Amino acid sequence: MQGYDRGEAEKYILRGLTKSDFKPFAGQAESLVKQAISLDFEYMRSAGVLEESGAMGGAYYDDDEAFEYIFDRMIRTRGLAEDDPKIGALAALVDQYMDLQQSYLERSGLMEWD
Fold it and tell me: Domains of the chain: which residue ranges?
């Protein structure tokens, strides 16, 4: 995404996180945010929201699909089973990430509503 400053986004998102909502992963917040951003961009490219060049594609960003894409891959990366009690905490982190990423994009003038 042209104009996206990944370092600034990471700082913004990390400052806004409520770590008490995802205590089992609180010590991993920085690496999780970095992974979430990477997975989010991976989702956008696979869904046609972004072209490989970073230019905007013709598809719309679907929040629910993006959440599932990021969340599912984070679960697999950590080898969590469906009944693992940590899954709720990971979902809380991804949910906060989604809200904060949107806020960062709006604040930076990189997101527009149709």
Answer: 6-107
